[in-house]
Amino acid sequence: MSEGEHRFPFEAEPAEIGLGTEFVTTVRVDAVIEKRVHQILLRATVRSAATFECDRCLDAFTRDLEASYAILYVTEAHPEETQDGGPEVQVISPDTNMIDLDEDVRQYLVLAIPPKLLCSSGCKGLCPSCGANRNRVACSCRNESDDSRWDALREISGN
Q1: Is a pLDDT exceeding 90 seen at residue 152?
Q2: What pLDDT does 36 receive?
Q3: Distance between first and last Cα of the chain
Q4: 86 and 66 in contact (C-beta within 8 Å)?
């Protein structure tokens, strides 16, 4: 590959790069590579979609995922290249003619999964008394708990 900027689109099936069955669409990678004499800067955006179970109502839903990252591949490490705030730096052999992106793409997609999985921001969840999904039905259960252990907290909060 000649020096300069090069753009490469890649696609892979989730299983090909070690992603689980929750990933339901083809993984798409848009890579921009800036090649210089002793370094290669990779900037990539990865996209896919996965199916999850909502943490509040337990319904299945599909969420689009996207992550962007940058890695600087160098043939020899220099202290100025490893400063905080810049791209991750990996040292490669000067003879390297191929860089495998599978593991990086897999890791960044897994990191793109939000810690709280909600089908929507307005999800009402399950009724704690009868277990009905409040997004689908309005149950007639009392919303307040009769648990007296919470009385002191209710008094403090004014509720």
Answers
A1: no
A2: 87
A3: 67
A4: no
The residue type found at 107 is Q
Tokens for 7, please give them.
């753009």
Higher pLDDT, 140 or 111: 111
d(CA 12, CA 6): 20
β-sheet bridge partners, residue 12:
27
Q: How far is CA 149 from CA 82, 127, 131, 132, 145, in A?
A: 54, 20, 22, 25, 10
Degrees to nearest 5, angle at CA 33 with 32 and 39: 155
CA-based torsion, 100, 103, 104, 106: positive or negative = positive
- Residue 21, pLDDT above cutoff 80: yes
Report pLDDT digits (tens) over 78-120: 655 555 556 788 888 888 888 899 999 999 999 999 999 999 9
CA 150 to chain centre: 37
Task: Supply the mean pLDDT for the chain.
Answer: 88
SS3 of 81, please?
A: helix
The C-alpha R_g of the chain, in whole angstroms, comes to 24
